[in-house]
Amino acid sequence: MLTIGQLAAYAGVTVRAVRHYHKIGLLPEPDRDHSGYRVYGAAAAVRLIRIHTLAQAGVPLARVHELLDATSEEFADGVREIDKELRAEVRRIQETRRRLARLAAGEHLALPQSVVGYLDTLRGLGLQERYIEMERDAWILVAAQAPEAIDHVIALKYEGLRHPDMLKLYSLVNEALDAPPDDPRIVEVADIVERLMIAAVESGTTGAQGLDDRMVALLDAAMLESTPNAERLLAILEQRGWKGWTRIERAPAG
Questions:
Q1: How many CB atoms sit inside 10 A of residue 226's CB?
Q2: What is the pLDDT of residue 181?
């Protein structure tokens, strides 16, 4: 006859594990001796070894019980079912790892490839990563609200990169992210933005296609929060008769 410690050592498990198997019903409680201690026989040792073997093989404890008392055919069917479940879990874990890898790579997780490619183009133009992150966050909001509009807007953005004013604008904004409010480059940015706004109005591409008023307000707020100079820039544009940022509009004459 074996004590609980001897039984655990014989099967290669801990005493705590044996007690846990008792608690969940995998290993029946044995008789006790005159002192109140558990005593185990060979059958308990065999069952414990089988429990440990199945658990080590990756069988969830919740499924061990049905396999312990199964016929040969039931055992084979049960193992196949567990294997199927484990393979599905492996696929889930692999997909989670792929998603984590995309998350580690930054914008890939929440953005379509067309936007990721455009952000990489901006990196190629030498823009600071801080500016890239500002634009990325705006694109994440747009992708969540109007994913069907992304490719069209991206095409317009690439077309805009062929315009000298747009390239100059990116360069100035990149340089003046933390410039003081009286930096003359902010006025120069306003000059370029106004020319681009005029061109957008004339061509009918005033932005915000597919976005509701709440999303437009959210994107405008994100722009204002992005850099201390954003408020100064918008104030200059408003003085010149413009309002909005995401959706370009002429301010009403006052």
A1: 18
A2: 78
* Residue 244 to residue 134: CA distance in whole angstroms: 18
Are 168 and 191 in contact by the 8 Å Cβ rule? The answer is no
CA 211 to chain centre: 23
How high is the pLDDT of residue 16? 94
Residues 66 and 181 in one domain: no
Domain extent at residue 79: 4-103
Q: Tell me, what's the pLDDT at 15? A: 94
Query: pLDDT band at residue 14, thresholds of 50, 70 and 90?
Result: very high
Residue 106: other Cβ atoms inside 10 A = 15
Q: What burial class does residue 192 get, using C-beta atoms within 10 Å of its C-beta: 0-12 exposed, 13-18 middle, 19+ buried?
A: buried
Domain total of the chain = 2
CATH of the domain at 80: 1.10.1660.10
Give the whole-angstrom CA distance, residue 102 versus residue 254. Answer: 50
Structure tokens at 160: 């805009």
Structure tokens at 188: 């120069």
Q: Are residues 166 and 133 in the same domain?
A: yes
